[in-house]
Design a protein that fits this description.
Structural class: alpha/beta
Oligomer: single chain
Distance between the termini: 11 Å
Bound molecules: BIS(adenosine)-5'-pentaphosphate, magnesium ion
Strand order of the largest sheet: 2-3-1-4-8
Helix content: 40-55%
Shape: globular
Strand content: 5-15%
Number of helices: 9
Radius of gyration: 17 Å
Length: 215
């Protein structure tokens, strides 16, 4: 299964990708997670990316295209992968096509999660993630058993720096300007599958699985 999860900030890409990883045993490739790790570790790439991420803008194409090209060559991608948050611009989508074709691979589907803007803001302001293992939560829609503590590893839950309302609005604008055109891009390739992302987490997963089986 070679899949892209497309959708605005807070649409549920990371949440659904984690469930698909469990089910299919293929890796999740999240450029956001990779960039956040680079920022935390203060690598050269992290230093370059930080200001763009803090402002809710996109990191330059050449930076992310390079890390994904390299990641796709890992042996764990041989039986498939889930791209989460990449591609985000038409040049990134073109570069992905080139990388996959060089590896003799084709995408199976691009699942686009559709969620209303106000629901996205509520999801992002209430999002928490584990500072230890990275597991995601929501204070209302997917709370941990004990407030502020990870169910899996008992580490403290944290809030992402870019989940402040002003930055969230900027990320949404950037999505509409630069990433939404990819829906048409992949519709033309007959790969686009729209899924109603407004349902609860388990119901969205069911819809994604049904869409993939229908292929
Ligand atoms: P990235 O980390 O990719 O952020 P994003 O696209 O803004 O998406 P999010 O991770 O915020 O949302 P999500 O769709 O994963 O939602 P989640 O499942 O967590 O990118 C961050 C930054 O890195 C970018 O702004 C950019 O600067 C840079 N970057 C990354 N990739 C790049 C690229 N390719 N090019 C250039 N720059 C790049 O869910 C959100 C919350 O909602 C959670 O709390 C969850 O529990 C809850 N939730 C999920 N589903 C549901 C549901 N169905 N019902 C109720 N609640 C739900
Ligand atoms: Mg995410």
């Amino acid at each position: 299964m070679k899949l892209i999860l497309l959708g605005p900030p807070g649409a549920g890409k990371g949440t659904q990708a984690a469930m698909l990883v469990e089910r299919f045993g293929i890796p999740q490739i999240s450029t956001g997670d990779m960039l956040r790790t680079a920022v935390r570790d203060q690598t050269d790439m992290g230093k370059k990316a930080k200001a763009f991420m803090d402002a809710g803008g996109l990191v330059p194409d050449e930076v992310v295209v390079g890390i994904v090209r390299e990641r796709l060559q890992n042996a764990d991608c041989d039986s498939g992968f889930i791209l989460d948050g990449f591609p985000r611009t038409v040049p990134q989508a073109d570069a992905l096509k080139q990388s996959l074709s060089a590896l003799g691979k084709d995408l199976d589907a691009v699942v686009s999660l559709q969620v209303d803007t106000e629901a996205l803001v509520e999801r992002l302001t209430g999002r928490r993630s584990c500072g230890g293992c990275g597991k995601g939560y929501h204070i209302k829609f997917d709370p941990p058993v004990q407030d502020g503590i990870c169910d899996s590893c008992s580490a403290v839950l944290i809030q992402r720096d870019d989940d402040q309302e002003a930055t969230i609005r900027n990320r949404m604008d950037v999505y509409h300007e630069q990433t939404a055109p990819l829906e048409d891009y992949y519709r033309q390739d007959n790969l686009l599958r729209s899924v109603d992302g407004m349902a609860d987490i388990a119901a969205v997963q069911d819809q994604i699985l049904r869409t993939l089986q229908a292929d």
